[in-house]
Amino acid sequence: SLSGENNKINNFAKDLNKKGIIIISITESGNNTLSKLSDINIQFYTHEVAKIEHVVQIYSGSQFFIINEFL
Questions:
Q1: Strand partners, 43
Q2: Are 45 and 59 in contact (CB under 8 A)?
Q3: Residue 45: Cβ-neighbour burial (10 angstroms; 0-12, 13-18, 19+)
Q4: Is the dihedral of CA 47, 61, 7, 30 positive or negative?
Q5: What SS3 class is residue 31?
Q6: Which of 32, 35, 46, 50 could form a disulfide with 58, with the two C-beta atoms 3.0–4.6 Å apart?
Q7: Where are the beta strands (DSSP E) in the chain?
Q8: Residue 14: which pLDDT band, with cuts at 50, 70 and 90?
Q9: Which pTM was predicted?
Q10: How far apart are CA 47 and CA 71, in angstroms?
């Protein structure tokens, strides 16, 4: 989860916690719900690369894919 605030994923993580399953997450840096629910959180930085008419924001996510390839 990029933001760590996806309700579906966070509810799933809560269910896993109740079962005692170890959670490893990958989220953008900073405090977020998923990182707090996880036993291990790998954080990465994102930055805005474009904004269209103050409505759509586009972020770079290449670091996420590099982390996944490494793992």
A1: 27
A2: no
A3: exposed
A4: negative
A5: coil
A6: 50
A7: 24-28, 40-44, 48-52, 56-59
A8: very high
A9: 0.72
A10: 23
Residue 34 to residue 21: CA distance in whole angstroms? 14
Surface-to-core class of residue 26, CB atoms within 10 Å of its CB (0-12 exposed, 13-18 middle, 19+ buried): buried
Q: How far apart are CA 23 and CA 13, in angstroms?
A: 7
Rg (CA), the chain: 14
pLDDT for position 48: 76
Name the token pair of 54: 């103050």
Pull the structure tokens for residue 38: 């996880």
What pLDDT, in 10s, does the model give residues 23-45?
999 888 888 999 999 999 988 87
Distance CA 10, CA 50 (A): 28
pLDDT tens per residue across span 54-68: 788 877 777 777 777
